[in-house]
Amino acid sequence: MYNILENINIFPDKSDTDKLNRFVKIITDYNSKVNLVSNNDIKYIFEKHIFDSLALNLFIKKYLNSYNLKLLDVGTGGGFPSIPLSLLFNNIDVCAVDSIRKKIDFINFVKSELGIFNITPICSRIEEINPIYKNSFNVVTSRALAELRIILEYSLPFLKVGGYFVAYKSIKADAEINESQKALKILNAEIVDKIEYTLPLQTCVSRCLIIVQKKDDTPIQFPRKNGLIKKNPL
Q: What is the pLDDT of residue 172?
């Protein structure tokens, strides 16, 4: 099953597959008590969530020279993409942020069970997180959190200038890209690429990574309070 990762330029060894197998068992067992993903999705946890998370490697291979990164995952949920990334890439230092305590508790449980040393879970709304995290990450990711113009405001303040924000989206992302032009201008960022890939399911499910580069400092007032961000998107 894991050989399909070669489609995203990942060639797992036995250690990698053992770790992924253990993670699949943990989340399957845990999900029966605490709902992290839907019951339909748990049957396809590798195809819909792990493979999708690790597709970030398509971006890394194309835009970065190494895996020595500080990465912030905004709205990590049940640990996607943060857990698969931290499991397979030891040189990526992952900060996983979510406002729902049960989800952060799960990530801490996985961290302990699998001995993951390079992931730091934080329970907080991203706009309320300690400001010391601003301008400190090489890469920020977000998967299934909100429309693009909203997650740009959540994410860009935490990137270093020149760093990249990567949004996991469906192939129908063009409408969100068009609606995000004002936000990109205000936040001093630019969409530089859209990387397309397909999930390994029987039916064709197309996905893409929207690659945004931070060109200059984000104005200091961002991110605004959550109510303002959602009520009045940029």
A: 80
- Please determine, for residue 226, whether its predicted confidence score (pLDDT) is greater than 80: no
C-alpha angle with apex 208: 7 to 29, nearest 5 degrees? 70
In contact, 223 and 229? CB cutoff 8 Å: yes
The DSSP annotation for 82-144 comes to HHHHHHH-TTEEEEEEES-HHHHHHHHHHHHHHT--SEEEEES-GGGS-GGGTT-EEEEEEES
The tally of CA atoms less than 13 A away on the side-chain side of residue 226 is 9
Summarize pLDDT for 157-208 with one digit per residue, the tens.
999 999 999 999 987 899 999 999 999 999 999 999 999 999 998 888 899 9
pLDDT at 57: 98
CATH number at residue 129: 3.40.50.150
How far CA 136 is from CA of 67, 93, 217, in Å, comes to 16, 12, 12
Stated pTM of the model: 0.95
3-state secondary structure of 71: strand
**Distance of alpha carbon 85 from the chain centroid:** 9
Q: Give the list of residues 6+ apart from residue 44 with CB closer than 8 angstroms, or none.
A: 201
Angle between helices 101-114 and 14-31 (to 10 degrees): 140
- For 162, phi and psi rounded to 5 degrees? 95, -15
Residues of the domain holding 140: 2-231
**What's the structural domain count of the chain?**
1
For the segment 143-161, the average pLDDT, to the nearest whole number, is 94
